[in-house]
């Protein structure tokens, strides 16, 4: 079986910083067989390679800053757009609310006026009817009491 070697940068960094005393016997055997193929590097060279691999690319950092700034601008614009849409919707709701409240207030005012008008009509009718009743009551009592008594008390003499 052939052992798979990983080519990730993390593995390369681990290899560069690994101390030779912690290597297992199998690694020593493998490194001895590979020694003929690859030249042995000094620890300074290993360190230089590891630092080179770890150091971020200056172009990548600049592009990251540029992308971050661009993303911030896009997010700000989009949030502004959403806020404007929400404000327009809120204004519409407020206008509708005011319209409905105005209609309700007008309806209530009309209803109040109609009720007041009907109450005034009833009051006028009651006062008119009460006046008529009192007039008829007085005259009826007057006719019945005074006139009829006087008439009944008189004796007509025939000529």
Automatic annotation (TrEMBL):
- Protein biosynthesis as a keyword of this entry, yes or no, is no
* Keywords, alphabetical: Calmodulin-binding
Question: Which portions of the sequence form the region Disordered?
Answer: 1-42
Annotated coiled-coil positions are none
Q: Where is the composition biased (Basic and acidic residues)?
A: 20-30
Q: Which domain of life is it from?
A: Eukaryota
List, as start-end ranges, the regions of compositional bias called Polar residues: 1-10
A GO MF label: calmodulin binding
The UniProt family comment states: Belongs to the IQD family.
Q: What is this protein called?
A: DUF4005 domain-containing protein
């Amino acid at each position: 079986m052939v052992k798979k070697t990983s080519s990730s940068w993390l593995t390369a960094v681990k290899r560069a910083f690994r101390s030779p005393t912690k290597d297992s016997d199998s690694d020593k055997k493998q490194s001895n067989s590979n020694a003929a193929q690859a030249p042995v590097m000094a620890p300074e060279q290993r360190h230089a390679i590891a630092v080179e691999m770890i150091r971020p690319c200056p172009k990548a950092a600049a592009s990251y800053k540029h992308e971050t700034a661009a993303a911030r601008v896009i997010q700000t614009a989009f949030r502004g757009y959403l806020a404007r849409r929400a404000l327009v919707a809120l204004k519409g709701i407020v206008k509708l609310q005011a319209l409905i409240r105005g209609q309700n207030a007008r309806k209530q005012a009309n209803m109040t006026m109609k009720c007041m008008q009907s109450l005034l009509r009833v009051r006028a009718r009651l006062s008119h009817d009460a006046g008529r009743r009192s007039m008829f009551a007085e005259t009826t009592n007057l006719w019945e009491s005074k006139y009829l008594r006087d008439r009944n008390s008189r004796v007509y003499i025939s000529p």
